Each structure stands twice: as structure tokens, then as C-alpha cells.
Automatic annotation (TrEMBL):
Cell location: Cytoplasm
Keyword Cytoplasm: yes
Domain Radical SAM core: 99-333
Family, per entry: Belongs to the radical SAM superfamily. RlmN family.
EC number(s) stated in the UniProt entry for this protein: 2.1.1.192
Name of this chain's protein: Probable dual-specificity RNA methyltransferase RlmN
NCBIfam families, per database record: rRNA_mod_RlmN (TIGR00048)
């Protein structure tokens, strides 16, 4: 079987050049891009404003193939998780999360994950490979088509790169994906609606800042190097102070704050002493802290803290003037919550889908 190039890998400028190489005017590339993005087309026959001969030529030489959705689970809270089978047989998961006035999609960027965070099931799967651009974009296409077919009126407004894998270890494909998603005549997602979560790879953060500054979330999870290195093996490379310094240099999107993600684990990092250390670490810069109560799993040796301890931690940070939210675990019953994606594959691949956030106001 011929392995045709997938046109979901192409940015609009590349599609224009492709059309010229095929003897067509460059504006055909814009039309093609519109169908691939805005219309989420599944095949070239849908592209009725393209000449029939061009559609036949594209169909012969190129592909719009999507990963196969082999499983779909829906939680009582409306969260929907898809298991997607890739062309080479590998599996990933992507999650649609309902919010009050919109939907958020949590996308994966790798098959498995090389980071190996101790509180995340995905890390136990190991790392297989990076996703191609079209495999990341396809998750958005599938989600948008699914919501449209269900007759949902609320928009898929936010895309968060918090699924399987460390996005910055697939940096080239990540940046190209972000550019495709943000192009005004395509998906048209604003940068503040595209959030990249990272465990903190400073060199890659610097490249992202230059190539495509977007909303950023740092997976910190501890205010001291000692605890963080026990939870995240790669943390030995950079100190927490170096990471916070790098975050302060990262370009801020207008009217937004850089997010600090903090998985709270009972008797590990949930005491007021750690809240004090975190407040001191973040002092003097408009960060937003997102507290994530640990989601238990039989494969992991940790426990979830009490609601009282979570609220005490949050209120302390708020008292220090730090905007602090608590994620309400969505998709918990279908193992679509933070650190659970890929759990089904472990039994037979995403830290951190998104949750609805509740905020207590400081003062």
C-alpha cells in the first residue's frame, strides 16, 4: 500500500506551493486549507469549489486520513474520552471536557511519555514515538466533528496540550501545529486559547518563546528541589528557581497569567509548610496556581489529600495575593482525569486533561 503524504501536515504556505507545483493557482491552496481546517473535511470529494480534476489528482497522490476511533467513553459529568488507533497500530487518548459555556480539548503529543512522573500512569507506559502534526491536528478535527454531529451549540474553545507526552520534546511538530491552529482563515484559535503544559525544559521554552509564544503552564508540583526530583526524575536537570526564572522571561499573552500546575499528594507536598515555600518561590510575579488533587490509581503508590487540606493550601496562597484555583476532577470514572490517561492500555497513553476550575477570590 502506497504511503501518501497527509495534507493535515501542511501549513497554508506549503499548500499554496503544492498547488503551484501541480500547475494550479496558489489560491487553491487557501481553499484547500479552508476545507481541511474550517470544514474539517474527511475527503477531497467534499471540496466542491475545487475543480473535479484537481480533486481526483489530490485523492490519487495525497491523504486526509484520520486516526481510527476504536473506543469512546463518556462520564456522567459529560467528559468524553476517545482511544485513537494510529496508522502504525499505536494508541493514544484525547479528551473533550465540558465547561459552563464551552468545551476544552486535551490533546496528546506523543505515544506514551519519556518523563516518568511518579504520580502519572502514562509514565508507566514508557515512550514510543512523537506524534506527527496531522496526528495532533486530527484530534481537533475528530472532536469538532463529534460535537457538531451531536448538535452541540457550545464551541470547542480551548485546546490544551496536556495529554500523553511532554509537548516540548516534540517541539518542531508542536510549533507547526500551533501555527496551523491559530491561522485566522483556518481554525482561528487565539494564542490564549492554546495552552502548552511542560515539565520545564528551559532550552525548549526559549525556542517556543521565539517561535510561537502562547499560553504556558509549568508542571511544578513541588516548591523544593528535593521533593520535585523524587516526583519527576528529569527535574535533576533544572532547579525550581531556574524554572521560575525561565517562566518570568517567557512572553505573557495579553491579560493572562502563566499557570503553575501543582498536583497535591497526601503527606508528600500538601502541608502548609510547602504552601509557604511555594508562596515565597512565586512572590512578586503574577502567576496563577492550579491545584490538582491527586487522582488515585492502583498502579500508583500515592493517596489523594483531603478536601480540607486542599482548601487550606489554596486559602493560604490566596492570602499571599496569589491567584489560586482548584481543578474539579472531570472524567474520573472513565480514567480520563489527570495522570490517568493510558490506564486502560496499561491493563491490556496523558498526564493532565483539563478540569473545571473553581476560584476563591483573595481578600
Amino acid at each position: 500500500m502506497v504511503n501518501k503524504p497527509n495534507l493535515r501536515n501542511y501549513y497554508i504556505d506549503e499548500l499554496k506551493k503544492l498547488m503551484i507545483s501541480l500547475g494550479e493557482p496558489s489560491y487553491r491552496g487557501e481553499q484547500l486549507f479552508h476545507w481541511i481546517t474550517c470544514k474539517c473535511a474527511l475527503n477531497f470529494d467534499e471540496m466542491t469549489d475545487l475543480p473535479k480534476a484537481l480533486r481526483a489528482k489530490l485523492s490519487e497522490k495525497f491523504s486526509l486520513e484520520l486516526p481510527e476511533a476504536i473506543d469512546k467513553e463518556e462520564d456522567l459529568d459529560g467528559t468524553v474520552k476517545f482511544a485513537l488507533k494510529l496508522k502504525d497500530g499505536n494508541l493514544i487518548e484525547t479528551v473533550i471536557i465540558p465547561e459552563r459555556d464551552h468545551y476544552t480539548l486535551c490533546v496528546s503529543t506523543q505515544v506514551g511519555c519519556p518523563i516518568g512522573c511518579k504520580f502519572c500512569v502514562t509514565g508507566k507506559l514508557g515512550f514510543k514515538r512523537n506524534l506527527e502534526v496531522y496526528e495532533i491536528i486530527s484530534q481537533v478535527v475528530l472532536a469538532r466533528r463529534y460535537l457538531k454531529e451531536r448538535g452541540e451549540e457550545l464551541p470547542l474553545r480551548n485546546i490544551v496540550f496536556m495529554g500523553m507526552g511532554e509537548p516540548l520534546l516534540n517541539l518542531e511538530n508542536l510549533i507547526k501545529t500551533l501555527k496551523i491552529l491559530s491561522y485566522p482563515k483556518g481554525f482561528n484559535y487565539s494564542r490564549k486559547r492554546l495552552t502548552v503544559s511542560t515539565v520545564g525544559l528551559i532550552k525548549e521554552m526559549e525556542i517556543l518563546a521565539k517561535e510561537f509564544p502562547t499560553a504556558l503552564a509549568l508542571s511544578l508540583h513541588a516548591p523544593t528541589d528535593e521533593i520535585r526530583r523524587k516526583l519527576i526524575p528529569i527535574a535533576r536537570k533544572y532547579s525550581v528557581k531556574d524554572l521560575i526564572s525561565a517562566c518570568k522571561k517567557f512572553p505573557r499573552i495579553k491579560n493572562s497569567r502563566l499557570t503553575i500546575e501543582y498536583v497535591m499528594i497526601k503527606n508528600v507536598n500538601d502541608s502548609l509548610d510547602y504552601a509557604e515555600k511555594l508562596a515565597e518561590l512565586l512572590r512578586g510575579y503574577p502567576f496563577k496556581v492550579n491545584l490538582i488533587p491527586f487522582n488515585p490509581h492502583p498502579e500508583l503508590p500515592f493517596e489523594r489529600p483531603s478536601q480540607e487540606d486542599v482548601e487550606r493550601f489554596q486559602k493560604f496562597l490566596l492570602s499571599k495575593g496569589i491567584l489560586t484555583t482548584v481543578r474539579k476532577s472531570k472524567g474520573l470514572r472513565i480514567e480520563a482525569a489527570c495522570g490517568q490517561l493510558g490506564a486502560k492500555f496499561l491493563k491490556s497513553l496523558t498526564p493532565d486533561p483539563v478540569y473545571k476550575e473553581t476560584t476563591l477570590r483573595a481578600g
